Amino acid sequence: MSKKPSNHQLVGRVAYLSIEWYRAQTIAKACRAQLNDEYFRYFQVNGEPEPNRRGIRVDDPRYEGVINFTNAAYERLVAAQRQKNNAKRRLETAIRALMAFSGDTVQVPKKPYVARANIHGETLQ
User: Fold this and answer.
1) How many angstroms separate the CA atoms of 114 and 8, rounded?
2) Which of 23, 63, 69, 99 could lock onto 104 through a cystine, CB 3.0 to 4.6 A?
3) What pLDDT shows up at residue 1?
């Protein structure tokens, strides 16, 4: 049976995981910027299939060249986003453990009562 972590250990874990999440977030932003730069360079040289439209249509054969050109950068972005999401999940788990240790809870505000009626004036509640 393992010993439960102390408050000091839990706070340290939250601090450590906060830094890890920030690192992962920064890396994901950098990967996104690299991918956007590759899109820009590809379209600058080869032209855009639809100049007035943003985004890449993966099912459109006109975008096959840009997809092949940016595939490595896209895979790096997907991996970085996965790492970012995992780091955030670990941080939230550590925060919940710290809150449970200290007996703290999150008080969610109640939704305000709003009388709703249809066009005939009949209330819907």
Assistant:
1) 45
2) 99
3) 60
Q: Where are the domains of the chain?
A: 7-102
Is residue 81 classed as helix, strand or coil in its secondary structure?
A: helix
Strand partners, 117: 123
DSSP at 52 = T
- SS3 label, residue 117: strand
SS3 34: helix
Count Cβ atoms within 10 A of the Cβ of residue 94 and give its class: 0-12 exposed, 13-18 middle, 19 or more buried: buried
Judge residue 31's burial from the number of C-beta atoms within 10 Å of its C-beta, 0-12 exposed, 13-18 middle, 19 or more buried.
buried
Which residues, including other chains, have CB under 8 Å from residue 116's CB and lie 6 or more apart? Answer: 123, 124, 125
Total residue count of the chain as it appears in this document: 125
Express each pLDDT in 104-124 by its tens digit. 888 889 988 777 777 887 776
Q: pTM for the full model?
A: 0.78
